[in-house]
Amino acid sequence: MVDDMTATAVEILTAAGLEDVKGFEGYAPPGGAIHEMGGCCMGHDVKTSYLNKWNQCHEVANLFVTDGSAFSLTSCVNPSITFMAFTARAVDYADKQLKAGLL
User: Fold this and answer.
1) Among 47, 76, 48, 49, CA closest to 65
2) Would you call 35 a catalytic residue per the annotation?
3) How many CB atoms lie within 10 A of CB 84?
4) Contact between residue 37 and residue 54 where contact means Cβ atoms under 8 Å apart
5) Contact 86, 66 (CB under 8 A)
6) Looking at 35, 58, 83, 93, which residue is catalytic?
7) pLDDT in tens, 7-58
8) Does residue 11 contact residue 42 with C-beta atoms inside 8 Å?
9) Do both 26 and 42 map to the same domain?
């Protein structure tokens, strides 16, 4: 996958008129250079998603997932701040649910 991403990036940049474009050579361990995503994606439909809009598991009320597995895909930028925002949002929701006796 990394080889294909590199080749595609070089192709795009060259087509845009850049010259002497070289792709990155070398590999990092899993998670070191790319952010793995997916596994328990968010959504409204229990049949097609694992988490609701609060990153809460549809089937296990006290399970919240706020890492990259909640995303079905990502762009080419670092998603860490988005993870932190989703975590803060999920914690706020869970706290309110706990105080209301719903969790």
Assistant:
1) 49
2) yes
3) 11
4) no
5) yes
6) 35
7) 999 999 999 999 999 887 777 776 666 667 778 889 999 999 999 999 999 9
8) no
9) no
Using left for φ > 0, alpha for ψ between -120 and 50, and beta otherwise, residue 5 falls in alpha
Distance CA 8, CA 21 (A): 12
Amino acid at 59: E
47 and 25 housed in the same domain: no
DSSP H/E element including 23: none
Q: How many CB atoms lie within 10 A of CB 40?
A: 16
Domain residues for the domain of 74 are: 35-103
Q: What is the pLDDT of residues 50-63, one digit of tens each?
A: 999 999 999 999 99
Q: Which helix (H) or strand (E) holds 103?
A: none
- Tokens 């997916």, located at residue: 38
Cα separation, 92 vs 95, in Å, equals 5
Could you give the count of Cα atoms lying within 13 Å of 77 in the half-sphere of its Cβ?
A: 4
